Amino acid sequence: MKPSYAIATPSYAGDIERCRLLCASIDRFVTGHAMHYLLVEDKDVALFKPLAGPRRQVIAESALLPSWLKPRPDPLALGRRRIWTGFRALRRGIPPLRGWHVQQLRKFALPLVSGEDVILFADSDMLFLRPFDVTYLGEDQAVRLYVKPAGITAAMTEHVAWCEMAARLLGLPRPTMPSPDYINNLVSWRRDNVRALLTRIEQISGRDWVSAIASQRQFSEYMIYGYFVERVLGLEAAGHTPDGFELCKVYWGGDAGGLASLRSFEDVLDEGQVAVGVQSFIGQPVERLKALFEAQ
């Protein structure tokens, strides 16, 4: 039987307009999925609720993560930012977390409550620009997993730390460099693998999986999943096939200046690419992205 598919997007109030654009692009271009999940903080549920529909569901963080991990205003930022902490979290040895930490935890938690076999993660600062059937990810039952062989070198200090943390969590030997890289946009996971992954983390750490992961603070959800399915299960047994092609064209920083001169995103998409991601921190106005989207 062919696997069922879902799309998942962790987001927050500051990205609502970008997320609205992502949803419009999914509705226009994407097929083959049973549901699109928006994973948001409880206080943002009402803001995102208008985006819900027959194939889009807004899930509150409280339905995914334990009650002892609570968001609150960051006193060091005069309340302009949020941190996830509290007495019970600190007692568990969990340092204050930022939003990007908690968005990763939501990704791990979703397969514990959702029913689809495969989840494709689409961040709220990206949008689809060409027709895309998500069932393409699972030809012959083996689901595509983004893997860039030797993509992480010893010089990439932060990435090396993520690799080492993933290995510790999974009870694996310290990894040598270069390491495969599993970090990308439009990464697909299998639900049963995530459940097995979290069970392994709990068995090795002797703690609940949220505490085990969050206590490290420096982690990458994609590296943890990639190490598990390739080094613990084996890709074939995990039901994955490796693929280093980037389905999404991503703008991270200085190269985004070229967006101002584009007539449409077709000018920059490579053959086979179906989406573009423009990181929200590089300051491109949503109105410009919307104009380029509407020019498709």
Describe the fold and architecture:
By secondary structure, the chain is α/β, with parallel strands linked by helices. The protein has one domain (5-294): Spore Coat Polysaccharide Biosynthesis Protein SpsA, Chain A (Alpha-Beta Complex), CATH 3.90.550.10. 32% of the residues lie in helices and 22% in strands. It has a 5-stranded mixed sheet with strand order 4-3-1-7-13. Strands 8-16-15 form a 3-stranded mixed sheet. Strands 2-9 form a two-stranded parallel sheet. The longest helix has 15 residues, at 191-205. The chain is globular.
Summarize the structure.
Helix content is 32%, strand content 22%. With 296 residues, it is an alpha/beta fold. It has one domain (5-294): Spore Coat Polysaccharide Biosynthesis Protein SpsA, Chain A.
Strand ordering within the main sheet: 4-3-1-7-13
Query: Which series of helices and strands comes N to C?
Result: EHEEHEEEHHEEEEEHEEHHHHEEEH
Would you identify the CATH H-level superfamily? Spore Coat Polysaccharide Biosynthesis Protein SpsA, Chain A
Largest sheet: 5 strands, mixed
**Mean pLDDT over the full residue set:** 92
Overall number of strands: 16
Question: Architecture in CATH?
Answer: Alpha-Beta Complex
Structural class: alpha/beta
Strand content: 15-25%
Q: Would you give the CATH topology?
A: Spore Coat Polysaccharide Biosynthesis Protein SpsA, Chain A
CATH class: Alpha Beta
Helix share bin:
25-40%
**Uncertain runs:** none
Shape: globular
Number of domains: 1
Spatial gap, N to C terminus:
35 Å
User: What is the overall number of helices?
Assistant: 10
Please compute the radius of gyration using only Cα atoms: 19 Å
Organism: Bosea vaviloviae
InterPro entries: DUF6492 (IPR045499)
Protein name: Nucleotide-diphospho-sugar transferase domain-containing protein
Pfam family, one: DUF6492
